[in-house]
Amino acid sequence: MEKRYCRKCLLAELDDEKLAREVKDAIERLDAKTRVSDPEYKNRLDICRDCDYLNEATCGACGCYVELRAAAKSGRCPYKKWK
Ligand code: SF4
Fold first, then answer.
1. 12 C-alpha to ligand 1 centroid (Å)
2. Which DSSP string corresponds to the chain?
């Protein structure tokens, strides 16, 4: 069963290390059919790094964890900076 993230947590309630590990684990659970290639993943994240919406690993435009979104073939940038 896929683990979901609580959108109601306050920053004070978050464990940064645990959260980072859970996002990484979610990326690793993506199978080859649903995951982008490593070069495409890097390209997407390079664009996010230069984007003013990037805020502590999340996208300020949509609230997602950019690394998880960028890893999925179905992931899209809300501003079409990458697709
Ligand atoms: S997903 Fe798009 S809007 Fe969000 S941080 Fe990345 S480049 Fe910026």
1. 25
2. -PPPPPTT--GGG--HHHHHHHHHHHHHHS-TTTB--HHHHHHHHHHHHT-TTEETTEETTT--BHHHHHHBTT---TT-S--
